[in-house]
């Protein structure tokens, strides 16, 4: 019999059974998460399951964040915020408030997630946690509400599709370009209910903040999970970020696919052949080399989201636009992924760089990514964003257009007011561990 993939190993361990792709299991949950949009419905399900008298399966492993409508943009949003606060206080769960940041960033920064964890979140981009070598996946509020009471959830063990990249990335090409290329090649449904596993020397060389970009957008291929196997870089990152090393051996074979594991497919790439990518409206799968859209005029630039709202992303853009001003009639909205990112932007002068250029820097959270507030688009507006989705109406008007790209591409485009190849400017690549340890950018 062939070896096992990471996904097969993890769901075997969490279910206590020897399982393979296609099997159904009930697995023990390590971490459960909801935010201000999905939490209230999950709480109603929890109360129904427990007759209003239950307790959380593990309060210390349950996390709620206020990040989507943060700050509240209306009475209903404010009431949802209060519902999270009250439920968390009543049941002893961790709860992060307005300005603390996006769930997927906060759970990592605060040490709630580590390699080998099975993490469920009532948010589709919960695949992000695979950047640490966890099995993270999004679930509906009803499933989450039940799991909050039982600590278990059923899964179909997913097949795995592997994306393997060898070589050194060219200047101005980042993980965002890789994932857009992958999605463009396999399509929006090309990895439906599969684990997207990323490997090869290029992936091994990526800093952790860029690995998160790959796993975050696994869902844009339909993925059940996104996986980058943990390594010593993962361990160093966690120690720098949280102050303590992971309590698991990142070299444990249980956290790595076997060399003879069976994959649904393997897609292979040479890094030096990858050009900066842009996903054109209105689907992430519409990825093209930047030369096909260079010169497209934009009305708004958006830097942020759980995909590319980390400090290193902000630094990439700030280095490009430092000392410059946005072109007339072009606006830039900047939303850090967490309060910690915001603070580091303040301390390093990155925030000042954005403000001096004419950008609007807002409190940490999801911002206009889901089209709620803090910079939504009007009819006819064209936006270039570091976000993850560009469906019609995703960031506002159904008659607006959203292009997706890397922070470097957004930064270069901010100089000219049109989509611009980042290879035309000087770009940098940052080591997140060094920055966390206080190195100067």
Structure, explained:
The mean pLDDT is 96. The chain has 2 domains: 6-271, Aconitase, domain 3 (2-Layer Sandwich); 277-436, Aconitase, domain 3 (2-Layer Sandwich). The protein is of the alpha/beta class. It is globular. 32% of the residues lie in helices and 18% in strands. α2 packs across α5, α11 (311-321) crosses α13 and α11 (311-321) runs parallel beside α14 (407-416). The strands form 5 sheets. Strands 4-3-2-5-6 form a 5-stranded parallel sheet, with helices on both faces.
Supply the key terms.
441 residues; five-stranded parallel sheet; Aconitase, domain 3; leucine biosynthesis; 4Fe-4S; lyase; amino-acid biosynthesis; HAcnase/IPMdehydase_lsu_prok; alpha/beta; globular
Concise account of the structure shown:
The chain has helices at 6-15, 39-50, 75-91, 103-109, 141-150, 175-186, 201-205, 208-216, 232-242, 305-308, 311-321, 339-348, 350-357, 407-416, 432-436; strands spanning 24-28, 31-35, 62-65, 94-96, 118-121, 135-138, 152-156, 159-166, 194-199, 225-227, 265-270, 277-279, 287-289, 300-304, 331-335, 360-361, 382-385, 401-404. It has 441 residues and is an alpha/beta fold. Its EC number is 4.2.1.33.
Strand tally: 18
Overall morphology: globular
Distance between the termini: 49 Å
CATH topology of the largest domain: Aconitase, domain 3
Radius of gyration: 21 Å
Domain module tally: 2
Q: Numbering strands along the chain, what is their spatial order in the largest sheet?
A: 4-3-2-5-6
Report strand %.
15-25%
Low-confidence stretches: none
Mean pLDDT equals 96
CATH superfamily of the largest domain, by name, is Aconitase, domain 3
Number of helices: 15
CATH architecture of the largest domain: 2-Layer Sandwich
Helix % is: 25-40%
Largest sheet: 5 strands, parallel
Level-1 CATH class name of the largest domain? Alpha Beta
